[in-house]
Design a protein that fits this description.
Number of helices: 8
CATH topology: Rossmann fold
CATH class: Alpha Beta
Radius of gyration: 17 Å
Shape: globular
CATH superfamily: Vaccinia Virus protein VP39
Structural class: alpha/beta
Number of strands: 13
């Protein structure tokens, strides 16, 4: 019997509530995208943009939890954007998929219907590996998805700020040792920050930060208790399993 090998896999997320096709090689969706969705607050009818959506994981996971979103998936790679479109349809989730560079100008965004001051929520998982310390993958798509330049975060935050309404909310995930970069990028136009450190293990420094920021917000910054992904035996904690399987949300998503 001959085994047929395809470069596309179908993987289950949210405990099987979401089935996504993605490339076998290159960037593959993981916990970061699901944590990002679980950290995003939204209500039915909200206009939501997932910037750098890849195959749609974070945006579609959010839409699976919150029905009735006006969801837009923005992705620079046409092949990934097509998979995002297929995934939305296969999971019966209404979503518009746009092939667009997040760093494009306002005119390019507007041409795709993303006008200034028109979106309620933006969520994003930008490339965040430091190009000076991280050896990029020879796979160009994976390199683009993972490696940041000095301007990446500022450019992505600028795009989010432009399309968000006043008091609109940006939720992002970034590497924890780059928190200073996050605060600098959000210092113009955003406030009311809530920061959730994410630790792989209790005895180790945080590996990620999830940040919620409000356009024009003026409330003091909140640093929340850290989320510990694994216990002493390096097994995911029950609360984390509940989040990854779609049975719970993170404090950033709670009203």
């Amino acid at each position: 019997m001959i085994e047929v090998v395809t470069d596309i896999t179908e993987d289950a997320f949210l405990g099987g509530q979401l089935l996504l096709k993605q490339k076998r090689s290159g960037h593959r969706a993981g916990h970061d995208a699901i944590l990002l969705a679980a950290a995003t607050e939204a209500r039915a009818g909200d206009r939501v943009a997932d910037l750098g959506a890849g195959v749609g994981t974070a945006g579609l996971a959010l839409a699976r939890r919150v029905a009735g979103l006006d969801l837009c998936l923005v992705e620079i790679d046409p092949d990934l954007a097509e998979l995002a479109r297929v995934n939305a349809a296969a999971n019966a989730i209404a979503a518009e998929t746009i092939v667009l560079d997040v760093t494009a100008d306002a005119q390019a965004f507007a041409a795709h219907g993303l006008m200034p001051d028109s979106v309620d929520h933006v969520l994003m998982n930008p490339p965040f590996n430091d190009s000076t310390r991280h050896r990029g993958s020879p796979d160009q798509a994976r390199h683009t998805a993972h490696v940041a330049t000095e301007e990446t975060l500022h450019a992505w935050v600028h795009a989010a700020r432009r399309i968000l309404r006043s008091n609109g909310v940006l939720t992002l995930i970034w590497r924890a040792d780059g928190i200073a970069e996050v605060l600098a990028a959000l210092s113009r136009g955003f406030g009311s920050l809530s920061i959730l450190p994410v630790h792989g293990e209790e005895s180790r420094p945080a590996i990620r930060v999830l940040v919620r920021a409000v356009k024009g917000g003026r409330a003091p910054t909140r640093l929340l208790p850290g989320l510990m992904l694994n216990n002493e035996s390096r097994v995911p904690k029950k609360e984390v399993r509940n989040i990854l399987e779609g049975r719970a949300v993170l404090p950033l998503a709670e009203p």
